[in-house]
Amino acid sequence: MLTIRDLRKSHGGRLLFEEASLQVNYGERVALVGPNGAGKSTLFSLILKRDEPDAGTVQRDEWTMLGYLPQEGEAVGEETALDIATGKAGEIPALEAVLARLEKAGDVEGAEYLEAHAKHEALCNPHVEARARKMLKGLGYREEEFERPARELSGGWVMRAHLARLLVMEPDLLLLDEPTNHLDLLSLLWLQRYLQTYSGAVLLISHDLEFMDALVEKVFEITNRKIVSYAGNFSDSLRQREANYEQQAAAWKNQQKEIAALQEFADRFRSVSSKAAQAQSKLKQIERMEKIERPEPPRKPFRFRIPQPPRGGQQSMNLKGVHMSYGDYPVYKGLDLLVERGERTALVGPNGAGKSTLLKIMAGVVPIQQGICQAGHNSKIGYFSQHRSATLNPSNSVMDEVLASNGKLREEDARSMLGSFLFRKDDIHKKTAVLSGGEKTRLNLIKFLVDPPNLLLMDEPTTHLDILTVESLVLALEAYEGTLLFISHDVHFIRKLASRILHINAGNVTSYAGGYDYFLEKSGLLGSERFALTA
């Protein structure tokens, strides 16, 4: 249904692809991976025909209906979440305009007309509203929110409505660019389960290891301007990548030995008249060889030692009878919560339930109306906010910012750590004011790691990080001896680090004294009515 052959594409003066090829067949679930900036989103633009290749072809079956979920999307008018999910807002009028234009031009047999007609038909189905309600519910909407104006919703909730519309249409090929970014944990699990039985093909860009492992059956990796295909899920691709590297490295070493032996013979005997012809023959043999390029070793998570924080008291944080409201909207009423030294706690629950607010209360960022919020003896609190730029000095360079975080840090150690978090060469001299969202996330993480507090509060620390950088962070936090509370929708991150789960919903906090799998088993959430919607 989708074939890319011998693709060549440059962007911003940099060559992204050269002789790159891939194929996606009907019903396949495929992941597209590679480091940030490798060209994943550019490839999506080429598939969507929003951009043209410099060379090569991008071919789609003319009967294929394609659906695309970008990373960002905003509401533009008075439409409701249900209007977006049913296509009444934006999608149906746009499709009708396309159909009218093509009919007027007499072009009713081309791929553009066929696809627009199929999408219009899917959204005008008499059962479309029932399907839209089902999708919205699965993605975390409550019934009373279906008719809420989308302009009152956050960008993440608007994106869920757009995702619901795509699932309602059931495209033959679904392109998803970081679909889990705006989802809470339970919505992510619902989407994962739904896509496991989806009838169409799925091509997704994701940094979520567990999501890909549960879903995909093929991986395309963008590496060295080529696209390499691996069978199986993401973890399978890592094993195959390592095996391929070892084979290529062995072949390169063997060839280098052979070349060295031939060159040595030629150098030794080229001036000996009786063996000069043989020496020349050896040199020609070297010239005729098809040279094997030295393979680059696969990127691996960076392991580094972080300073251990000062030891705090047995109680890291104690909340008693806490009341917290935003205006007339109550978030917590009489909340009691004890956090003990060394605990590793993940906060999970629907978006808007109060997870970030709880971290802000502990960090002293928002005031409480009633009750006690008391940090433990000798507590040194560090708060890793979703709003990364607030903690950076805009006039500092990246290197200055890291060195200022720990006066004992050597510059070479700072360079190594910056390199492991993808700050290379001149990047370390950039002013923090010009950094991207992903760069600010990575820089703030480094600042915490070089001088860690003994009570670390982290709100979505893996956002904008690629898989290997997430794994580097996991390794660092596994060695961390302080107390950790974090919010994340990255299942791999939660499973690796959490030994306690706090489920937060409608102001209620339920503690589960175990890890992620214990929480799923004891909470019974996967057996709820919401998850029956995936059937």
**Structural class estimated from helices and strands:** alpha/beta
Low-pLDDT residue intervals, each spanning 5 or more residues: none
Give the N-to-C terminal Cα separation: 26 Å
* Total number of strands: 18
Model description:
The protein contains 18 helices and 18 strands. With 535 residues, the protein is an alpha/beta fold. Helix 3 packs antiparallel against helix 4 and helix 12 runs parallel beside helix 14 (437-450). The model has no long low-confidence stretch (mean pLDDT 89).
Question: What is the element layout, followed by pairings?
Answer:
Layout (H helix, E strand, L loop, with lengths): L1 E10 L2 E11 L4 E5 L6 H8 L7 E6 L5 E4 L11 H6 L4 H14 L6 H13 L4 H11 L16 H15 L3 E5 L7 H12 L4 E5 L3 H7 L2 E6 L2 E6 L2 H36 L6 H13 L26 E12 L2 E12 L3 E5 L6 H9 L6 E6 L5 E4 L13 H8 L5 H10 L16 H14 L4 E5 L7 H12 L4 E5 L3 H7 L2 E6 L2 E5 L3 H8 L5 H4 L3
Parallel strand pairs: 3-7, 3-8, 5-6, 6-7, 12-16, 12-17, 14-15, 15-16
Antiparallel strand pairs: 1-2, 1-4, 8-9, 10-11, 10-13, 17-18
Helix pairs in contact: 3-4, 5-6, 9-10, 12-14
Features:
535 residues; alpha/beta; 6-stranded mixed sheet
Short description:
The chain is α/β, with parallel strands linked by helices.
